Amino acid sequence: MSADPTADPRQDYDARRTRCPVHTHAGHVTAYGHPEVLEVVTRPELYSSAVSRHLQLPNGLDGAEHATLRALTDPYLNAPAALREIETVARAVMRELLAALPRPATVEAVSDLGARYAVRVQLRWLGWQPGREEELLAWIDENRRASRSGDHAWTARVAEAFDAIIRAELAPRRAQPGADVTSRLMADPGLGRPLTDEELVSILRNWTAGDLGSLALCVGVVLHGLATRPEVQDRVRQGVPDAELDAILDELLRLDDPFVANRRRATVDTALGGVPVPAGTVVHVNWTAANRDPRVFPDPDAFDPHAHAAANVVYGAGPHACPGRALSTLELRVFTQELLHATRTLSLAAPATREQAPGGGYATLPLTLA
Ligand code: HEM
């Protein structure tokens, strides 16, 4: 791991992919190339998602079980009515955050804006106690430090602390169900029975713990992209259709994908890009490297939202592709629209520092809003 806070892990991923799109290290295989990553994630008959010993719903399931759980949970994240509710919440939260900021102001865009926005929207959407905002912000920070440390005991303690927060939200709803999303999920009869507490904790953990940090990192990448591309910033500030803004956001994330990697386990002896993969091998897919593969994006650093859209894998591919894509895109769109509407310029106030592997994007991004 590099000690230089401005060192960009993408350079390392690019170099590895150029040397060989598939690497083997200490019995693990990592796919860095775009075709190889797609091969892993679109062939569940060769690569299982059951990698963790913890219950992971829906991401640790395969086949029919996985499809059943996705059918139950996806509508909470991407049904048009759900998205309308989230849009109202997201706009209100962003306006509150902006109203509280003096102008001109220098902010730390990842934690002061991105993480706070993600947490506040999520708390209101799920109907959780507003008082949990500081607790969840502190949790995101500790989770980041724990995963960077490589200390598994610390990571496990941090994960348990999050599960305790979720259980504390479930308990009062058992006694008195409300109308919020959490209560609706608890009463969902989609499996022919209510979900168990363990299942609820796992699903809600995926909607929150896994994604609050990702959304904050996405905010950092998007704002860095806009601050360093004033012409794009101006065009968006003047107003572009939602679909065009969404394509711009996806492209900024493709260039510098902060959601770096996921895992699978080979279920049969197979080969990937010519590298033998014995049954049982853990295979990592590096989305960040795949999104910059010149075999698919001939000029990977070029900003070209339309030409690059079809092959963009920021939100994954295959049966496990992100069910939160519409929700995240909506949150990022609302964030960007409101911020650009409320400012004349946003520019870097100081050099950004990079999040170090296994994370992606920026750890800190000092921005001046005027
Ligand atoms: C913030 C930006 C986000 C990015 C870049 C992102 C990216 C991804 C990617 C690449 C996958 C595929 C994982 C794999 O193949 O193993 C995934 C899966 C998933 N994402 Fe997201 N995600 C984001 C936000 C969200 C949000 C906000 C939610 C929910 C509220 C969410 C829920 C999930 C779930 C439940 C899965 C597992 C799906 C499955 O295994 O079937 N994501 N995400």
Structural class: alpha+beta
What is the number of strand segments? Answer: 12
Mean pLDDT: 95
Element-by-element helix/strand order: HEEHEHHEHHHHHHHHEEEEHHHEEEE
Indicate the radius of gyration in whole angstroms.
20 Å
Strand order of the largest sheet: 1-2-8-5-3
CATH top-level class: Mainly Alpha
Count of helix runs: 15
Domains (count)? 1
Uncertain parts: none
List all distinct small molecules, including ions and cofactors, that are bound in this structure: protoporphyrin IX containing FE
For the largest beta-sheet, the strand count, sense and barrel status come to: 5 strands, mixed
Question: How much of the sequence is in beta strands?
Answer: 5-15%
Family: Belongs to the cytochrome P450 family.
Protein name: Cytochrome P450
InterPro entries: Cyt_P450, Cyt_P450_B, Cyt_P450_sf
GO molecular function, one term: iron ion binding
At a glance:
Belongs to the cytochrome P450 family. The protein has 370 residues and is of the alpha+beta class. Helices cover 54% and strands 12% of the residues.
